[in-house]
Amino acid sequence: MIDPSSVGEPLLPDERMTDRRTLRAAQATPVARRAKPRRWNWLYAVALVITLSIVAFNILRPITVLPRIAPAPGFALVDEAGQTVTSEDLRGHFTLYSFSYLDCDGACPQSLADIDALRHAMGERLPAGTPLSFVTITLDPERDTVERLADTAAPLAPDQEAFGWQLLTGDPLRTRYIVGGGFNVYYSDPQEPTADSPGRITFDPRYVLVDQLGIMRAEYRTGQLDPELLTRDVNYLINEAENSQGVARLGYEAAHLFLCYPR
Fold first, then answer.
1. Does residue 141 surpass a pLDDT of 90?
2. N- or C-end of the chain: fewer Cβ atoms within 10 A?
3. Higher confidence at residue 185 or residue 52?
4. CA 127 to chain centre
């Protein structure tokens, strides 16, 4: 016999609906809790795959690139023929910049003779038609006039065994901005040679390799650059320029991202 007092009041329709919703929420909560770890496991797996890919790319190094150091400085200077030469004129091919002056002799850390020897050495190592040019900016523009450049450049015309070479001069202050500020090459003001300082100008010898887009890609802090090293680096630029098209470009961008530089 059921005690009538133990039976509660019948539920109203709204109360029944609330109970059903509460029951469904209670039943759904364990499922949501079980699904959350699965989602995080998937994210962990993706992160692990990306990490392993980065490590493998750095270890295997399927593509090696030269670093993109900085944009080369823009300039407008004058060559040995008295013609204005701008940085834009050199776009489309690789340029090896050097910095010296005409009176730089054997005591100089980077003489014109050193640059000329390197130019011929590269002609023996790279195939004909390689888009490489040599450009030397004088550090003594007051003395190195267009007429003096012309006399010096006459025997330096390109031949079958050497690449073209331009000697550039210009306003001293503008040269200071270009060489010192743009290429980060230190050099002193011209002075009379002495026994302790036989050179008219003291400077840090340096070559700078710039690609076809006007980006500095290698700096060589030496006056005696190894032709084999320069040949290797020019070939890196050639391979990147020829192969970084379409989907393959993503591989080269990944090589830059993961710093896959020569060791």
1. yes
2. N
3. 185
4. 24
Residue 182: pLDDT band with limits 50, 70, 90: very high
3 state DSSP class of 54: helix
User: Structure pTM?
Assistant: 0.77
For the four alpha carbons of 132, 175, 157 and 82, in that order, the dihedral sign comes to: positive
Report, as an integer, the average pLDDT of 31-42: 61
Record the tokens describing residue 163, joined without a space: 């690449």
| Crossing angle for the helix pair 112-125 and 227-243, to the nearest 10 degrees | 50
Measured CA to CA in angstroms, residue 3 lies from 12, 69, 122 at distances of 22, 91, 110
* Closest CA relative to residue 140, chosen from 112, 106, 111, 169: 169
pLDDT given at position 9: 55
DSSP state of 27: H
pLDDT tens digits, one per residue of 85-102: 999 999 999 999 999 999
Closest CA to 214 of 68, 67, 72, 66: 72
Q: How many other CB atoms sit within 10 Å of the CB of residue 159?
A: 10
Q: Angle at which helices 227-243 and 248-257 pack, to 10 degrees?
A: 130
User: How many angstroms separate the CA atoms of 97 and 262, rounded?
Assistant: 21
Are the beta carbons of 132 and 94 closer than 8 angstroms?
A: yes
Per-residue pLDDT band for 60 (boundaries 50, 70, 90) equals low
94-109 as b/e: b if 16+ CB within 10 A: bbbbbbbbbbbeeebb
- Give the three-class secondary structure for 133: strand
